[in-house]
Specification:
118 residues, rod-shaped
Length: 118
C-alpha cells in the first residue's frame, strides 16, 4: 500500500528543528516561568485555604456567642418573671412603706377636657 502525501507534505522538516532549538536555547527561562506559575498557584491555594479556615473560625465564634446570648436571655426572662410575681410586688410594697387606700375619691368634671394646639 503506497503512502499518499498529506496536506502537510510540503512543510519542510526544519520547522520542528526550529522549535526544538528555541526550546533548547530557552530551557532556563521556560523552567523559571513554569516554576513561577506553580508558585503563584500554590500561593493562591494557600490564600484560599486560609480564607476558608478564617471564615470557619469566625462562624464558630459567632455560634458560641449566639448560644451564650440565648442562655443569658433565658436567665433574664426568668428573672423578669420572678420579679413580676404578686408575692414579690407585695414584698416591695411593704419595703417601700406603702399602705392600701381606705377610701377612693374620684374627681368628676362637667366640662369636657380640651388642650391647646401649638
Amino acid at each position: 500500500m503506497p503512502i499518499t502525501p498529506t496536506m502537510y507534505a510540503h512543510v519542510p522538516a526544519s520547522g520542528g528543528k526550529k522549535n526544538a532549538s528555541f526550546v533548547s536555547r530557552h530551557v532556563v527561562a521556560l523552567n523559571a516561568a513554569a516554576l513561577a506559575g506553580i508558585l503563584a498557584l500554590v500561593a493562591l491555594y494557600i490564600g484560599q485555604i486560609n480564607a476558608a479556615v478564617s471564615r470557619g473560625f469566625m462562624e464558630r465564634t459567632l455560634q458560641n456567642r449566639m448560644q451564650t446570648l440565648t442562655e443569658e436571655h433565658r436567665r433574664l426572662e426568668l428573672a423578669v418573671s420572678r420579679i413580676q410575681t404578686l408575692d414579690h410586688v407585695q414584698h416591695e410594697v411593704a419595703i417601700l412603706g406603702l399602705v392600701p387606700a381606705q377610701e377612693t375619691t374620684f374627681l368628676v368634671s362637667s366640662a369636657p377636657a380640651v388642650a391647646f394646639a401649638k
